[in-house]
Amino acid sequence: HCIAERDGSTRRSNLSFRLGYQAGTDLGRFGATVWAVGAKQNFRHESIQEASNDWAILVLDRAPVGVHPLLLSHHSSASLSSLERQVLLPAYSNDIASAEVLSVDPDCAVRELIWDALVHSCMAQAGSSGAPLLMQDGSEDVVIGIHTASMFASDNGHVARFVGNQAIGSWTFREAARALSRQLKPELVH
Q1: Residue-wise pLDDT tens digits, 1-30
Q2: Distance, CA of 73 to CA of 61 (rounded, Å)
Q3: How far is CA 100 from CA 84, 92, 96, in A?
Q4: CB 126 within 8 A of CB 93
Q5: Which pTM does this prediction carry?
């Protein structure tokens, strides 16, 4: 949703990534190009089902030095629900030091799956959108999803109660990521 214009169309120009910017250690500005988008977003009224396609893959104009990508999880949504207190959400939430310091909720879980969206118990505030949901898989962290929003149940348009936080499962964008990998380094893709 961060690359969408107000009308839901995809913003194609003037996109960038600034490694270390939030921590005050700006390690460079990288131009970015949109590779793939899950679906056009509707910001006025969006169902959970529509929001479950709120993802985009951007390609940087060069690789950041010393940064290694995380793998996408191969776990099913059912197995993720059984991982009590094994999910991490590192994020720059606006409620912690004005989003200048990375915080990590190390004690959360995936509670359920609703219309391909993971409902999780991680502490997330404004500014957490786009943060990865991670879990330990062997000796490395893998991405199980990307946090996108907080969900509320409503009754005739009135907010009734907080349901949980929503993340897009990594399986929703796995094929687009594989297609990009095949294009960039076909000899490394299995």
Answers
A1: 567 777 767 777 778 887 766 566 667 788
A2: 26
A3: 29, 7, 7
A4: yes
A5: 0.77
